[in-house]
Amino acid sequence: MLVLSRKPNESIIVTGKCRITVFNSNCKLGIEGPAKVVRAELEPQPVRKTGEKPMVHILDDDLNLLRAYRTYLENSGFRVETFRHGGEYLDSLSENCDASAAMFDLRLAEEDIDGLQVLQQLRARRYDFPVVLLTGYGDVDTCRRAFHSGCYTFLQKPASPEDILTKLQLATRQYLNGELSYPYDPAMMAR
């Protein structure tokens, strides 16, 4: 039996053989193998300070859509950072990244990497926040690869503002409550 402490007054008890990965944001743990995980919460602590808005990253090559997403989501209680290029987005990430979720367009400008490649790079760098992919060109193979790479969900373009808001609210709430984890597994991404 192994007892891990994630934050003050909280512990995770792991029994059985497993591999444990500690991710670089919010002290998230990835536990793989036949182990049984039991969480013992002594005094629940809020994951974020009261009143602090969750951060969402938006990646889309359409400037008008970025402006619309930013305005709508900021008016709905999020902090928002927007990016037009996948490489620019990946370069901007730091160890202190405070994103609670992200939303990427699957197809970006032809000279750029696509949203799926950005997602794969995020997971390879051990960022574990949920990512919603937007696509107007969904196919079964792309969908399968996205979920194997750690996609939270897909939304079909044009997605309604209400659908976007609902998915991001649910994703951030689950992430901040420690209910989501996307461990990096290169074998899964290769499929």
TrEMBL record:
GO biological process, one term: mRNA catabolic process
Keyword Lipoprotein in record: no
An MF annotation (GO) of this entry: RNA binding
Protein name listed in UniProt: Response regulator
Record-linked Pfam families: CsrA, Response_reg
Key word tRNA-binding present: no
PTM sites of type 4-aspartylphosphate: 105
Keywords per UniProt: Phosphoprotein, Two-component regulatory system
Organism of origin: Aeoliella straminimaris
SUPFAM superfamilies linked to this entry: CheY-like (SSF52172), CsrA-like (SSF117130)
